[in-house]
Amino acid sequence: MGTPELGILNRREFARRAASLGIAVGLPVPGFASPSSKKKPLPPSAAPMPSIGGADSLRAHAEGVGLHFGFAVVPELLDMEGARTQSTNDPYTRAVIAQADILVAENAMKWSSLRPTSTTFDFTQADKLFDFAALCGQLVRGHNLCWHEQLPSWFAKTATRENAQALLTQHIQIVAGRYAGRVQSWDAVNEAVHIPDGRADGLRKSPWLDLIGPEYVEMAFATAALADPQAKLTYNDYDIELDTPEQTAKRGQVLMLVRRLHARGVPIGAVGIQSHLQATGPAPGAGLIGFVRELAGMGIEVYVTEMDVNTHLLPGASEAQDAAVAEVYRNYLALVLPEPNVKAVLTWGISDAHTWLNESSQPWAVRADGSRQRPLPLDEGYQPKAAFYAIRTAFDAARQPVAIGDITKSPSPDGKATADPFAPFAVPGSPSVEPKPR
Ligand code: GLA
């Protein structure tokens, strides 16, 4: 079964072969009936399992309209050898092969994972991710080079005003340099804006800001650009999706940050909108589209980087959760995908078996009835849920212009329908560059 030539297959050819994987080696692929199940006669009422592999995968449907689809992965869980020999029986690995065209490490490329000590690096899991992606013809997003969270425990004791700049730039040179030419986009800076900290520039009072000053943002981008000139350098943030007063204000500050960087010639190529959404709403709307178009006006791409749908406040059984989650995916993708600068959609995991929302005991993750959340396209048994089909259908319609009437159905924060959700809108406090009407 060895296929030594796999490493040099192009992406489409691999996708084609991956599509036939389950059938070729006689192993169960999510959504395919397994050969052993063929031996057992199905009860007359049982519907055939829907196909979700190959041409029916999220990956294929996204590629069909020029989009990238992928998700956060845990490299430790990947069966590398099985993937190499096209014989893996592991449902997680098979889902990653079949469904993703772009991978991002859930945790493996954060400082806490890469930096066991202040003077050493551990690239074991990150290297594995890149090797896997190369084998499977997948792109990789780098996440992330500079963030205030998941810093190693030595950081607080070691980092000072004197050495912080060197720590940051050397980290970026080494990490981005190691994978140079192999990264589609790098989250150069993650979550730098936090309005409650009360600064006029909206920046978060993070260790990086305290130790270096606000110029740390520009420093991270500039260093990354030198280390990997090919990667699109991305600013990534959360809670910028909705038209609530808080998220509108934060989105405005993110836009101003991007404008400042852009105006100063800092090579920012993309903005990541994390898109951790709530099943109970409110729904995103016109403000998000205005933001995406402002970015388009600067030639900046947009990626949905960490989408999932949190049901901690939604009562009801799994069927109710699944329907609500699918509805959020459907509406959100219908809203953003018609924008031509939206180039990629990544979910924060692929199966409910592995999601941060089921690993956290925080109040924002735990359901009142104690049941597990179901925020992702596949269920815990790697079978497709309504969300899977909602995403796939949204990809097919992605580049079709959306009728205004469809979008105005989304409730606005004040409950009133917006007359024209595409009308240019002013970002509170932002510099007076007129948004371009579509
Ligand atoms: C943020 C980060 C991600 C991840 C999620 C939770 O969105 O950007 O890396 O930590 O929180 O898993």
Secondary structure topology:
Blueprint: H1 11-19, H2 21-25, H3 35-39, H4 58-64, E1 68-73, H5 80-84, H6 91-99, E2 102-105, H7 111-114, H8 124-135, E3 139-143, H9 154-158, H10 164-178, E4 185-190, H11 207-212, H12 216-227, E5 232-237, H13 245-263, E6 270-273, E7 276-278, H14 286-297, E8 301-310, H15 318-336, E9 342-347, H16 356-359, H17 386-396, H18 404-408
Parallel strand pairs: 1-2, 1-9, 2-3, 3-4, 4-5, 5-6, 6-8, 7-8, 8-9
Helix pairs in contact: 4-17, 10-12, 13-14, 15-17
Which features characterize this protein?
binds alpha-D-galactopyranose; disordered N terminus; single chain; 18 helices; TIM Barrel; disordered C terminus; 8-stranded parallel beta barrel; 438 residues; alpha/beta
Description:
- The protein has 438 residues and is an alpha/beta fold.
- The chain has a single domain (11-396), classed as Alpha-Beta Barrel (TIM Barrel), CATH 3.20.20.
- 37% of the residues lie in helices and 11% in strands.
- It has helices spanning 11-19, 21-25, 35-39, 58-64, 80-84, 91-99, 111-114, 124-135, 154-158, 164-178, 207-212, 216-227, 245-263, 286-297, 318-336, 356-359, 386-396, 404-408; strands at 68-73, 102-105, 139-143, 185-190, 232-237, 270-273, 276-278, 301-310, 342-347.
- An 8-stranded parallel β-barrel has the order 1-2-3-4-5-6-8-9, surrounded by 5 helices.
- Helix 4 runs parallel beside helix 17 (386-396).
- The longest helix has 19 residues, at 245-263.
- The chain is globular.
- It starts with 10 loop residues before the first helix and ends in a 30-residue tail after the last helix.
- The model is unreliable at 1-44 and 404-438 (pLDDT under 50).
- The structure holds alpha-D-galactopyranose.
- Residues 143, 190, 238, 274, 306, 356 line the site of alpha-D-galactopyranose.
